[in-house]
Amino acid sequence: MPAGKTESSPPTQRVVAIVELLAAQRAALTAAEIADTLTLNRSTAGAILAALAERGWVRRLPDLSYELGTRLAAIGARAATRRDDRAWLDQELERLADRVDCGAALTALSGDHLEFVAVTRDRLTAGIECGVRIPLRAPAGAAIIAHATTARQQDWLETRGPERRDEYRAVLATLRSAGYCAWRLEPDSLPGVRVLSEVADHLADHPGSKELRGRVLAQLGTIVGSAYDQSTLDRDVALPLSYLSAPVFDGGGHAVLELQIGPLREDVTRAERRRYLAELSAAARRIEDGLESVPARRA
């Protein structure tokens, strides 16, 4: 073998071939179709698909066919939002923040953490910058998890105590049916959120305090409010509103990012809520279009 050259691994090539085949298809494929297309032994193809499904790289559908999974789609989304590609993404987030007059953030799953891939500077995002990761504990990442596998949803629900699992299960259902979720914090929680955000922002300027800042951000993530049900959100009364979230899908229909805005206000009218939701949804669709065009930008 020539110096400096690595011998290819046939098992690895088979895995890559299956992933690339599914990525190139708009429709799901059965294990038999995958095996026949790639001239693989059917038991070998089945074993590879089972391993990929366990890791969330592919998803097995009720009809026993397979498509790309949310975990792999999330990896692709993070690759598409790396620093050298994402000027357009920062611009979209700034545009959204300007239109709703509050902070905005875009996050992606990263194993058992939630990673901020783009943020604007505001009360919602004080102390948080691109690349910050916080533990993935419900309700963080709900807009992505709502479209993940049932097993992944259950793992996420179990990051909190049983007393709130029914509530968070309803949150996932709301995100699937309505396409968004709105959250409230009790009025006496807002000052605490703002103080912790300011502390994290202050620590961001002190590299030696990275560990402490991480603990502050983790603590900030534990201050969770309650989600509104649709009937309450539609009432013609002013309501306290901490933040709103919506999923961002890739071209394969996988939820790969969560878009958030954070009014952090105690008296948001129904008209204002509707405007927030309209702007949030419109921004999510623009980001989806942008993700689709990233390869064209690189070409």
Automatic annotation (TrEMBL):
SMART domains (alphabetical): HTH_ICLR
| Gene Ontology BP terms | negative regulation of DNA-templated transcription
Q: Which residues form the HTH iclR-type domain?
A: 9-70
Matching Gene3D superfamilies: 3.30.450.40, Winged helix-like DNA-binding domain superfamily/Winged helix DNA-binding domain
Pfam family of the protein (one):
HTH_IclR
Sorted keywords for this record are:
DNA-binding, Transcription, Transcription regulation
The record's section on InterPro entries has: GAF-like_dom_sf, HTH_MetabolicPath_Reg, Tscrpt_reg_IclR_C, Tscrpt_reg_IclR_N, WH-like_DNA-bd_sf, WH_DNA-bd_sf
Question: Which molecular-function annotations from GO does this UniProt entry contain?
Answer: DNA binding; DNA-binding transcription factor activity
The IclR-ED domain is annotated at: 71-293
- Asked if Transcription is a keyword of the record, the answer is yes
Q: What is this protein called?
A: Helix-turn-helix domain-containing protein
